[in-house]
Amino acid sequence: MSSSKFATVMLQFVPASFVVGAGMELFMLNTGFYDVALRKEAERRAEAEEEYQARRARIEARRRARLSNNGSSPSGGGGRGE
């Protein structure tokens, strides 16, 4: 008996949820929500890429400095504790 009650509730709930979801999607399409979301996501990704490139440049500069310091040192120990 409870499974038929569950089926009855689901037969009312599923179509109502579909209609609400479709209405929300139409609203977002008509208001330009996706255009704004796309632009903001592109800006976030561009900013993250700039930060990544800056961090990468700092790492490369440190690596080059370390290599040039190690190359001039006769022991090649990297200057730690020597």
Provide a quick synopsis of the model.
With 82 residues, the chain is mostly helical. It contains two helices and no strands.
DSSP E strands, number: 0
Kindly estimate the percentage of residues that lie in beta strands according to DSSP: under 5%
Structural class: mainly alpha
Largest sheet: none
Q: Give the low-pLDDT segments.
A: none
Shape: elongated
Total number of domains: 2
Overall mean pLDDT: 88
Terminal-residue CA separation: 83 Å
- In which range does the helix fraction lie? over 70%
Number of helices, counting only DSSP H or I runs of 4 residues or more: 2
What does this structure look like?
- The longest helix is centred in the middle third of the chain and has 40 residues, at 33-72.
- The radius of gyration is 30 Å and the shape is elongated.
- The protein folds into 2 domains: 1-31; 36-70.
- The chain is built from 2 helices and no strands.
- With 82 residues, it is mainly alpha-helical.
- The model has no long low-confidence stretch (mean pLDDT 88).
- The protein has helices at residues 2-31, 33-72.
- Residues 63-82 are annotated as: Disordered.
Helices and strands in order:
Layout (H helix, E strand, L loop, with lengths): L1 H30 L1 H40 L10
Provide key terms for this protein:
82 residues; mainly alpha; 2 domains; 2 helices; 85% helix; elongated
